Amino acid sequence: MKHLELRGIRKEFGGVPANDGIDLSVRSGEIAALLGENGAGKTTLMNILYGLYRPDAGEILVDGRPAAIRSPKDAIRLGIGMVHQHFLLIGRHTAAENVALGLEGVPFVRPERWAARRMEEFAARYGLRVRPEAPVWLLSAGQQQRLELIKALIRGARLLILDEPTSVLTDAEADELFAVLRRMTAEGMSVIFITHKLEEVMRLSHAITVLRRGRVAGTASTAETTPEALASLMTGLEPVAPAARAQRAPGPEVLRVEGLTVAGDMGVPAVSELAFSVRSGEVLGVAGVSGNGQSELAEALTGLRRPERGSIRISGTEAAGRDCRALRALGVRHVPEERPRFGVVGDMSVAENAVLTRYHEPPFCRRGMLDAAEMRRRAESLIACYGIRPPSPEARAGTLSGGNIQKLILGREADGKPALIVAVHPTYGLDVGATEFVRERLLEKRAEGAAVLLISEDLEEVLRLSDRVAVMFEGRFLDVRENRGLDRRELMLLMGGGQPA
Amino acid sequence: MNASFGLGAETLSRSLAAATPLLLGTLGEITAERSGVLNLGVEGMMAAGAVAGFSAAHATGSPWIGLAAAIGAGAALALVHAFFSVTLKANQIVCGIALTMLGLGISGVWGRAFVGTPLACRFQAVLWSRDPVFYLAVVLTAALSWLLFRTRWGVAVRSVGENPLAADAAGLPVDRIRILCTAFGGAMAGMAGGYLSLVYIPSWIEGMTAGRGWIVIGLTIFAGWKPWKAFAGALLFGGIDVSQYLFQDHCSPNFLKMLPYAATLLALLASGRSLHGASAPPAALAVPYRKGER
Amino acid sequence: MTARSTLGALAVGLLLGSFSLGVMGADPLQALSSIFLGSFASAYGFGETVTKAIPLMLAGTGLALAFRGRLWNIGAEGQLLAGAVAATGAALSLKDLLPGFLMVPALFAAGAAGGAAWGLLAGWLKTRFQVNEVIGSLMLNYIAAEAVQYLIYGPWKGATQFGFPYTDNFCAAATLPVIAGTRVHAPTLAVALAAAGGAFWALRRMRFGFEVRALGGNPEAARYAGIDPARTALILMALSGGLAGLAGAGEAAGIHHHLTYPWAVSSGYGYSAIIVAWVAGLNPLLVVPSALFLGGILVGGDAIQTSMGLPASAISLFNGILLLSLMGGEFFARRRPQRSPSPLAGEGRDGGPGHK
Questions:
Q1: What ipTM did this prediction achieve?
Q2: Does B152 touch chain A (CB under 8 A)?
Q3: Does residue A314 lie within any of the structural domains?
Q4: Fewer CB within 10 Å, N or C, chain B?
């Protein structure tokens, strides 16, 4: 019997369809995997199912009956539970308090005791053990996820949506999770499992739906498919455009990293014992699913985060632990992720943002005074070279589109003779034209002799731009290879933590 | 021997009286801040409560009606703060300052008729010749501590102040809870003001709050947002307040008057912060919650 | 916030303010008109308005700078008093040591240093011990007021003041000249105008101003740009404290000619300056008209006190309402440009909007 059926779901954002006529069905007691690259529309679809977005078209049937899901409350009433990739837990509360939060039917007095008793039941039944009185911030990611599962189950979920559930788990924790999910489906519950990781899909799921660019690229029964077939479905069969890169012999080593260990925000190592090098005139592409230490690596290399251990040498100079200005002086440039958040000050002008990382140096600043004419000239030349719209140095940077903000940042960072450019998701969210433009500029800098460390989730981008490709997984590089004859399927397998075929 | 015992008892009694308004105000601010609303208007709400309490008690001859009026005045002003800072998502710091000005202004204008009028009616002492409001404050400390840490409401309030997104996702009405907590905080500040004009100095003097509202905000931090620690802190500060009279022969009164303020600074120095420690501020303090934004 | 919405909010605030005075038993129209007639319609009244605008300009400029960098210095009142104390100390101790023409510069320097030190204290508590600057600077206000009283009742009590708790009067060289027929102490006015202009220029043209605006605009981007938030906060506290200290020096040397009760040295200028800065939209140049406006309200407040029997706190009420109206106006100004979903919010990227 079909537990859930989605028919012709369509959702547009600003005229761009994120979901375009998606059909999906899940049978009772089934683990259905939803596979797809970033931007394929998986999370949009699940947010529609959970009532966070309203679809523009299409219908949802739960247990064969049409369901109107306008808010998460409706979803909960229909027995749909969701475990977000980023947990919605309150760090300073105990596990039991988190379970009791907003739950109907909890007693007024000591709700957490009641919750603790219910948690015991789930522990016994599914092996979901979390100490009720433990503060959440002391729990490991795996325990927090278990807590989210418990929360959903206590609210009566019979269909669970798990968004990238293993991205924060260790292998042992993932195994435990799978065991729990199997036990749950054995009792007739259903699971939708969103993931990148093919190996997990093969191990765990019964049926697979692959999304590509907002559409269903294919469906398969797990027993009858192979990881290679799935990777082809995910990436599409069109070949990667031939590399526009001119072949050239790389120059001397610019960046050498050894034994680099960087702590993440929670204090646990996000980058561990990393060693690699990048040479002048070379692009090293770092592929990988977000959250495997890429952000921390970029911050450590650009002086925004102090590494715990290890060495970062820029053209032979030890730079680990220096601040970002010192690194900039050594020729390190940074095209940061989350542009509007890190890369520009929205309330300042384009001219001021054009020198945001250089305002303190001549010619823009002499003896504490800014030279507005120089800043303006700089902005005008960036506007001209990079085609920034509107072409006004006085415009507030916050009013620019994402593509123009990125051109401004790239222009600012790529200017002059940078030794190393660390570019993080440089084309994320850009339209086709701006994407091409940014990629060409990066290759131009490579041709001029810069070393480029390209961190991206976009495999096509990594393959088109890189001379060598590394796959980052759980804080390490799984493999660093020459970009000759590599294909996306193979990388996709690696990104999911699997072994190369 | 007897004399020094008398002095000790007197000092304790005065300390308790000085501590009561601080405690009441701090309990209220703890509630507001636990829900994520920083209310810097406590001083104004206290002043409004003081004059409202005095005028109502003066008119009706009942200190209890006076106390109720003080509570109402504080809550009304706090609702203004809630409207601006929760509903309109305005800057809570500037908004709180505006409320302080507003409250001090209202109290001055309203209270001009009462300047120099002694209050005829008093609370009947209930136990050990103490006023009932003191005992009410003790009961409220216990009640608030219980509510915040042992009940469903407490979980809701603390959740909204820690992680409004998670609370929203769990189906809690974030803004409504914050508005209610802010109003409760204002009511407590009003009651604290009422205590000043009905019990502590039974009369109306302009500026009689004398910065106690600000000390309350310091005490809230000092207490680590916990009611029983607020009780201890208020007693300590009440004692410091009273020590002014104890040492006035030995030391300039101005230095003694500085003590509560300096003590607040020292207390804040001492309560070193960590992100997750037991006495860390609510994570979403003074951050407006906008639905649908990251 | 646009000029139009600011003016609209001010108009609404004035209406509400006078209406609330009406509720309190005064004729609102009469109150409003006597406020503005008293402060702007006569030469005397305007002179008083300018007199009160001087400290508001100085302190307001400092607060505009601090607020621009997201530093909530509420301690201008105490910093002003610290400046007055330091200037008094200089005037009394240097009167026989310094040639007369150096006296006034020395006073201002001392005032600025005193205010800056008091501001830095709050800044140090913030950057070193994470003591919230709002509470820190406020507590220092009360401490400063008590310190002033200690001085005038104690060690600095003047022998020539017939028992009043004032310090001795400043020597002639240490008193500021006034514009004839007014109490407008011209040197301080000149300093205030220069400070407002200088701050405006510094924000736009100086490296430090750039850092302040970047930090205030986007702290994360400022960190990415290599700006040190703690250092900037300390400099801002010193600057805004120093400007308030200059105001204190001006009040002591230009109005009272001695150190007197703290509430006489500053009748809440440090708090009113918060509104001055906010009305000016944190633009130091606009602090000048904004200070004149608030100065007018303070003078008008004195006028309605005498003519209508309203207490001094009526003005505090008025100011509170004004500030709230501004915040309301800001809300509606923020609302007006239609809030299309941000280009990034709608990409439907996996792991994107909708949660976290």
A1: 0.83
A2: yes
A3: yes
A4: N
Q: Which of C72, C138, C353 sits opposite B214 (nearest CB)?
A: C138
Which residues of chain B are within 8 Å of residue C20 when distances are taken between CB atoms?
Answer: 106
Domain shared by A116 and A220, yes or no: yes
Residue B262 Cα, gap to closest chain C Cα (Å): 7
**C213, C224, C231, best to mutate vs chain A, most A CBs in 10 Å:** C224
Q: Do A109 and B171 touch (CB under 8 A)?
A: no
User: Of B247, B178, B265, B232, nearest to B22 (Cα)?
Assistant: B232
User: Do A12 and A31 form a contact (C-beta atoms < 8 A)?
Assistant: no
Burial class (CB in 10 A: 0-12, 13-18, 19+), C261: middle
| Closest CA–CA distance from residue C109 to any residue of chain A (Å) | 22
Q: How far apart are CA A245 and CA A438, in angstroms?
A: 14
Give me the residues paired with residue A451 across strands: A420
Strands across the sheet containing A207-212: A80-83, A159-163, A190-195, A31-35, A207-212, A215-221
How far is C178 from C262, CA to CA, in rounded Å?
Answer: 22
Query: Do the domain assignments include residue B51?
Result: yes
Do C66 and C212 contact (CB within 8 A), yes or no? no
Domains of chain C: 42-331 (1.10.3470)
pLDDT digits (tens, 9 = 90+) for A333-364: 999 887 777 889 988 999 999 999 989 888 89
Q: CA-to-CA distance for C219 and C204, rounded, in angstroms?
A: 18
Q: Do A252 and A229 belong together in one domain? A: no
Out of A416, A436, A462, pick the residue that ends a domain: A416
CATH number of the domain that residue B71 is part of: 1.10.3470.10
- Among A182, A214, A235, the domain boundary falls at A235
**Domain range for A406:** 352-416
> Does B181 reside within a domain?
yes
What would the pLDDT profile of A356-388 be if each residue is shown by its tens digit? 998 988 889 888 899 999 999 999 999 998 888
pLDDT of C353 reads: 27
User: Which domain does B38 fall in, by range?
Assistant: 20-210
Do residues A183 and A126 touch, judged by C-beta distance below 8 A? yes
Surface of A (276-315) touching C: CB under 8 A: 290, 303-304
Question: Quick check: helix, strand or coil at residue C277?
Answer: helix
Residues A102 and A225 in one domain: yes
Kindly report the length of chain A: 501
- Is A248 found in the same domain as A231? no
Q: B99 CB near a chain C CB, below 8 Å?
A: yes
Beta-carbon contacts of residue A197 (< 8 Å; ≥ 6 apart): A166, A495, A496, A497, A498
C74 contacts B105? CB cut-off 8 A: no
> Looking at the complex, does the CB of residue B75 fall below 8 Å from at least one CB of chain C?
no
- CB-CB under 8 Å, C312 with B108: yes
CA distance B109 to chain C (A): 6
Residue B263 lies in a domain: no
Higher pLDDT, A228 or A335: A335
How many structural domains is chain A composed of?
Answer: 3
Please give the tally of structural domains in chain B. 1
Which residues in chain A touch residue C220, judged by CB atoms under 8 angstroms apart? 341-342
